[in-house]
Amino acid sequence: MALKIIKLISWNVNGINAAQKKGFADVLANMDADIFAVQETKLQASKLTPELENIPGYQSFWSHCQTKKGYSGVGVYTKIPPEDIKYGIGEKKFDDEGRILELTFDDFVFFNVYFPNGQMSEDRLQYKLDFYQAFFAHTDQLKKQGKHLVITGDYNTAHNEIDLKNPKANEKYSGFLRIERDWLDRITQNGYVDTFRLLHPDTVKYSWWTYRFGARAKNVGWRIDYFFVTGDMLTKKWVKEAFIDNTISGSDHCPIGLVLEIN
Q1: CA angle, 190 as apex, 187 and 191 as ends, to 5°?
Q2: Which of 184, 199, 209, 260 could join 6 via S-S bond, C-beta 3.0 to 4.6 A?
Q3: What is the pLDDT of residues 217-230, one digit of tens each?
Q4: What residues make up the domain containing 180?
Q5: CA distance to 42, 52, 63, 97, 251, per residue, from 69 (Å)
Q6: Which CATH number covers residue 226?
Q7: pTM, rounded to two decimals
Q8: Which of 96, 107, 130, 154 is catalytic?
Q9: 154 included as an active-site residue
Q10: Are 192 and 151 in contact (CB under 8 A)?
């Protein structure tokens, strides 16, 4: 059987219209991904322009927030036609915020997820924790059926101290709370693998920097964007490369990537 090499990219664009003005289409073309996932699109369906929707060589799929304008939202550009697509996990309170796209391909199920930010209030922190629980209950069912899963996006949580510049100063803030990090511990123990950390166990690299304090220039950042895969993909030796491309600007996040070799 011929070897299939599939390049996947994920990027929280922090408003795709803003990113478009900063060269998003060029980034998409230059990175030449087979599947390119974007989070925090901040779009309504009526505001999705043909220029964004119809990029040559790609099909695109979108899930928009239904509850608030200019908020949340995810999209996927793909050169590989999906066999099936779902716009959520069947739970209205999560699906209405446009946070999940599930695309079934021949070899794996691909999730693009914008996990909630818990910083605004106790209610939003609880919503975030409830979202983790509901989402991974859904993926666990697919995992039990023997599906190979790729779960990418902005998880809005740094897992360990190596994943942010100032861990001690942030341990009481959402994004690095023990109860949030426990979820990443739990999924890791449950057979989901952080591909970047697997291949680069000691590398200090970040994917998000606050716009304040010149944080990006000083590299005072957090690694909160991930490609997790189910462990069976490692057994099959499908995971070839994982990377963070912090040379690309246009958002407060930078793109992250995964290369699969499927035989």
Answers
A1: 100
A2: 260
A3: 999 999 999 999 99
A4: 4-262
A5: 7, 18, 13, 10, 19
A6: 3.60.10.10
A7: 0.97
A8: 154
A9: yes
A10: yes
